[in-house]
Design brief:
about 110 residues; three-stranded antiparallel sheet; 3 helices
């Protein structure tokens, strides 16, 4: 496990990705009119990642997920939580979840 974390950190450095791992607790919010949910990222994405949208890897209560921090008519950036992940962790909108999040590399389409 430690070797895997060290190699991920080195990869982020080589690819000029943000090396920080963000860890925080967040309330799961409901997407109005849909069976969707998200958490709010409590930092400024442009300051932290140098752009307005960031591809990230995350863990919700230890369950892995890959997505993007985006603004969807919300005051700040959000990260969606799929229904299957909510089922695995046994949580729904209104519940608190522990989040670990870091920037991930994405392949550029040619």
């Amino acid at each position: 496990m430690i070797r895997e974390i060290e190699s991920q950190t080195k990869l982020r450095e080589v690819m000029k990705l943000n090396p920080k791992i963000y860890e925080f607790d967040a309330v799961i919010r409901k997407v109005e009119g849909l069976d969707g949910a998200y958490i709010e990222f409590p930092w400024d994405v442009r300051t932290e990642f140098g752009r307005g949208r960031a591809a990230v890897s995350a863990e919700f209560d230890g369950i892995p997920y890959q997505g993007s921090l985006v603004r969807m008519g919300t005051p700040g950036h959000i990260l969606g939580i799929r229904k299957d992940i909510r089922a695995q962790i046994g949580k729904q909108p209104g519940d608190q979840v522990h989040v670990r999040l870091w920037e991930r590399a994405i392949e550029k389409k040619r």
